Amino acid sequence: MKKRWVIVGLSAALGWLGVAQAQVDLSVLDKDMAGPRAQVLVLGSVHLAELADGFQPGSLEPVLERLAAFKPEVITIEAISGESCDLMARHPTVYDPESISPYCSGTDAAKAATGLDVPAAIAEVNKTLADWPTQSSPAARRHLAALFLAANDPASALTQWLQLAEFERRVGDGLDDALVARLDKLATTNSEDSQIAARLAARLGLQWVFPVDDHTGDNVAIPDAEVGDYANAIRQAWKSAETQTQPLRKHEDELTRRGDLLALYRYINRPDVRRVQADSDFGAAMREASPGQYAQIYVAGWETRNLRMVANIRAAFREQPGARVLSIVGASHKPWFDSLLGQMQGVDVVDAETMLQAP
């Protein structure tokens, strides 16, 4: 069993409490590092569930081809992990169950099939993956898919399911009729987790994807009497920037109607597009001047969420120096992800616009 170590900074461990000095330039710490640098590609995505009914998952194939060419060894997604969902469920006075329910699916069916609650299922997943063979049997994949569902990690369960031959996608090895039906439904769900992350992971022979989303950081405490003012301040900020965002939205809608998803992804990952979107949302919120500074609270929650998400991404490849990492996330997060990940030691941020160009 691997022992977990909590890393303490050297100065703290030795009790050095010097007087504040000029800021340390951390960007040069890795200039003489040994070994390859990690390559992290942040793919800003539309939320596929919000596209029109005519959306065809097959239109994503050119995007998948270019992402496969990057050859990621780690894929992260904008989903909350089973561990985090379990934590929030245990603190209903801190995290409103109604607010977190859209992000945390229930595991009752998987628990009934496997006999495992979320913590026990996570332990079994980790144990299984630690001894995962180079060539796995269909029975082992079905069993691991069941464990992932019990651990509240449906995208990883789908990753296993998609690596099974059609005739092997059946009941058995921990999967009952209800879980098989859920996996079949996940395979046709229009979401980035299912149609991009899980399919790409299965294509590349990866065993799981890493959920890195966080909604503890933006769990802002607004008194009931002030909720209306809070929401109105944010709406006013957005309205003030409509002239900036309307042309961008119109172009995105046109690319979507044409079914040109590769062009759409190239567009939304352009730095100039992301710059306008960031300013019209969070820049506008910082400029919003109504009493209470509610829009600035919104920005603080957003930044805290992004900090915790990026920390989760870093944790996903902390034991793999030099890894190739693909992070799939709503496009609004991309500027924060690129900026924060670019500050990490031994990490290079890959240009998404270039990666999405023709090979």
Concise synopsis of the structure shown:
The protein has 359 residues and is of the alpha/beta class. 52% of the residues lie in helices and 7% in strands. It is globular and about 60 Å long.
Notes on the structure:
With 359 residues, the chain is of the alpha/beta class. It folds into 2 domains: 35-78 and 217-359, no CATH class; 81-211, no CATH class. Helix content is 52%, strand content 7%. InterPro entries: DUF5694. Residues 1-22 form the signal peptide.
SSE inventory with pairings:
Layout: H1 10-14, E1 38-45, H2 61-70, E2 74-77, H3 82-89, H4 97-100, H5 108-114, H6 118-130, H7 138-150, H8 154-162, H9 177-188, H10 192-204, E3 210-211, H11 227-240, H12 242-258, H13 261-268, H14 271-287, H15 294-316, E4 324-330, H16 334-341, E5 347-350, H17 352-355
Parallel strand pairs: 1-4, 1-5, 2-3, 2-4
Helix pairs in contact: 5-7, 6-7, 7-8, 8-10, 11-14, 12-13, 12-14, 15-16
